[in-house]
């Protein structure tokens, strides 16, 4: 029986375990740099002003109800989400080459894509994940039975992109392999390829006939500019790839628990693209139906209201700049505190990395000391969520780092 001997005890999710340990800590000095969720300068969750406004408008609507959405989600949400992530001028939209589905946030989008690939690939594919990557990628692809390999990404010595290693592994991947890429604000390293490097990656993938699986959880959150953060996606589409894109509204709308996201499949240009997109959408609908029936409505309603209203959209862009701007300021502040303390090591990567996370280069034992001695909570791999820093704790954190690296 499963309960007696077949089902072994699984390890606790490290991130959610870290959250529990932080909650238990009674010190007033404690600092939470674990989970990737935005915090304001008082270390509090931040409801975006534009989200509050849109939420109120929805609640005031006398026609609001809680009926099921269609299987593919709210059409006005998916079409606006598509425009946002592919770019409003995308040839994929103009030529009706994209099938878009509302999903259970970014995680649900990655899962739907993985499930589709597992079911419809001619041969069992291999997915190449960056080393390191968001830990859940491993579990999601593993769960649907797709082989996983990795490509080098982060160079521990330079704390920068190992571009040569990345490109040479991608070059040697068998034709038809799936390459998972983070189009902006790579999690966990905060290190992104430059535009020129994206061009080279796309060229090699074209040559080798590799499938781009683009997981974008931070559009607008990285640089504050929506069009800068989807550059890689636009470039791959312009190159005529068939590809898929996973989109999350957790971070850029602060809608973490509402689970609003989308999955987009773009077929390659060609005379049969209209038929291809129809066939793919029909199969995605079956997968979606069997997994979740139809997606959750409330978060998507909020995002949709904002995305479809030019005035609210402009206010949202302002909120995005507030979040990304505060994080950039915290990068500068941390670097400057470490410089002041003359902390051993180089810390330029703190300001050159981008987005929610920084890969500090701290090792597992230093991370453990930070937690035990200084009440600072971060993942074992040395990743910190920059949003957990603020003007009240950045100097304390820098001193704690200084203590454990000496
Ligand atoms: N993909 C990456 C790379 C992420 O970092 C995250 C969140 O941390 C996600 C996907 C999915 O997040 P969510 O399911 O909350 O949208």
TrEMBL record:
Further information: In eukaryotes there are cytoplasmic, mitochondrial and chloroplastic isozymes.
Ranges for domain Aminotransferase class I/classII large: 29-400
Single Gene Ontology MF annotation: L-aspartate:2-oxoglutarate aminotransferase activity
InterPro entries linked to this entry: Aminotransferase_I/II_large (IPR004839), Asp_trans (IPR000796), NHTrfase_class1_PyrdxlP-BS (IPR004838), PyrdxlP-dep_Trfase (IPR015424), PyrdxlP-dep_Trfase_major (IPR015421), PyrdxlP-dep_Trfase_small (IPR015422)
Cofactor entry: pyridoxal 5'-phosphate
Enzyme's top EC category: transferase
Keyword Disulfide bond: no
Family from the record: Belongs to the class-I pyridoxal-phosphate-dependent aminotransferase family.
Catalytic activity: L-aspartate + 2-oxoglutarate = oxaloacetate + L-glutamate
Name of the protein: Aspartate aminotransferase
Lineage summary: Eukaryota, Fungi, Dikarya, Ascomycota, Pezizomycotina
Matching Pfam families: Aminotran_1_2
EC number: 2.6.1.1
Quaternary assembly: Homodimer.
